[in-house]
Amino acid sequence: MYTISNRLKIASIILMVLGAIGIGIGFVSSPGTVQEAKAMVASHGDSHVNAHAEKATEHHSEESSHHAAVEEAHHDASHDEHLLHQLQNRPWAAVYVAAFFFFMIALGVLAFNAIQRAAQAGWSPLLFRVMEGITSYLVPGGIIMFILLACSVAHFNHLFVWMDPEVVAHDELLQGKSGFLNGTFFLIRAAIFLGGWIFYREYTRRLSLAQDEANDDSNFLKNFRASAGFLVFYLVTESMMSWDWIMSVDPHWFSTLFGWYIFASMFVSGITVIAMVTIYLKSKGLLQDVNNSHIHDLAKFMFGISIFWTYLWFSQFMLIWYSNIPEEVTYYITRIADFKLPFFGMIVMNFLFPVLILMNSDFKRLNWFVLMAGVVILAGHYLDIFNAIMPSTVGDQWFIGFPEIGSILFFAGIFIFWIFRALSKAPLQPKRNPFIEESKHFHY
User: Fold this and answer.
1) Between the CA of residue 209 and those of 338, 423, 431, what are the distances in Å?
2) Beta strands in 285-357 (DSSP E)
């Protein structure tokens, strides 16, 4: 049995406290009035900030609110109001990005676990308890996500422009989408997604533990059938979730690839965390039957899904850029203009780095090497979500500061504490899985 160490407990609590302080500073320092917002921008002493703010407003007016129809006299007032909303959004957006990032790791692991069980894979049963530990975060992570979404519906922030009745009143496209994009239906869908994912996780966890004490394989077979059925539910709900929770922050833009694109990001992030937690537990003398071949296979998935993510990213980018349709290409123009470092940095961290580092088969067997690659991949996919949310919510007023770093630390602390606490609740090695011996003797 694994016991969570005091050092790890204290470290996770320190992360939560430091993170909460950073988030608090972000909220306290956000402006309350248009005058405060203008003073904040002026205090940066950066003339291009104002130029970019006006450009972002023009994009916003064309793309999200169609304010081109509003009289020129109102332009300055609407620009100031928009600037205020951007600055007020920043701490909310920072929390939202970090909350979603850690939640999607657990969701990616849930999909990987379901695939392994539905495929009746022989190599992975030794890793099932690690996966179950990570997916336990779906409960607190899901509750936090639902609260954040409910705060948006209750107009505590301006993350989702389609939730603002004034914007919708001047926007025919959003009026046409209001049957789907409305607060009540939005929260109902979120409850269905979260309920389905958490129910499957809890059900299969119970069956997994029951199989250890059983005299036959009936629990294993139930798990197999549940996982095969769940994958259908997952593919539909994951796509809809990515439209709702991420793509709808920019409701005039859409991509038919977006569901797959977000899936690739969460899948590779989840597999990376499985590898990192497994290596940590092995360093503590646990999971003794897990060998270098298991780590090698996880690293192969990290490499392969990084290529898959790149394929989807490039497919989406190249088609939109090449066709050059104004309402579509604006999505990338704003990111390349105002988010150069996170935009291009993400591509290097999510594609070039994994390809160059993890291509060598021998390196995939070195624990420290896989850990190093994992840290870069996770940072890259945090930037992926950052790039998806920030341009539409804070525009060019973004910065990596107290609220962003604080949010990462806060949710990392909760994530670490919760998953290692879950790992301590049951033996780390399944006993009666029909493929456990095959997994123990797995060599590649």
Assistant:
1) 50, 12, 9
2) none
Q: Which of 47-51, 112-116, 266-270 has the lowest mean pLDDT?
A: 47-51
| Amino acid, res. 194 | L
Instruction: Taking each helix axis as running N to C, give the angle between helix 75-118 and helix 47-60, from 0 to 180 degrees, rounded to the nearest 10.
Output: 70
Lowest-pLDDT choice from 303-307, 321-325, 364-368, 385-389: 364-368
- 400 φ, ψ (degrees, to nearest 5): -95, 100
pLDDT digits (tens, 9 = 90+) for 386-438: 999 999 998 888 888 899 999 999 999 999 999 999 999 999 988 888 888 88
Calpha distance 432→434 (Å, rounded): 6
Q: Is the pTM of this model over 0.85?
A: yes
Residue 103 contacts residue 144 (beta carbons within 8 Å): yes
pLDDT of residue 358: 84
Return d(Cα 139, Cα 103) in angstroms, integer. Answer: 9
Q: With contact defined as beta carbons under 8 Å apart, do 395 and 55 qualify?
A: no
| CA distance linking residue 105 with residue 131, whole number of Å | 11
Q: Which helix (H) or strand (E) holds 86?
A: helix 75-118
pLDDT in tens, 2-15: 888 899 999 999 99
Residue 48 pLDDT greater than 70, yes or no: no
Task: Specify the DSSP element, H or E, that contains 295.
Answer: helix 292-323
Q: Which residue has the tokens 């989406």?
A: 316
Amino acid residing at 320:
I
Average pLDDT over residues 166-193: 93
User: Given the structure tokens 């993890």, which residue do they identify?
Assistant: 358
Q: How far apart are CA 142 and CA 106, in angstroms?
A: 10
Q: Tell me the Ramachandran region of residue 443: left when phi exceeds 0, alpha when psi lies from -120 to 50, beta otherwise.
A: beta
Question: How far apart are alpha carbons 376 and 353 in whole angstroms?
Answer: 8
Measure Cα distances from 432 to 1, 213, 217, 265 in Å. 16, 8, 8, 33
- Candidates 96, 102, 110; CA nearest to 196 is 110
For residue 435, count other CB atoms closer than 10 A to its CB: 19
Q: In whole angstroms, what is the distance from residue 343 CA to residue 365 CA?
A: 31
Report the 10 Å Cβ neighbour count for 139. 17
Helices (H), 214-257: 218-245
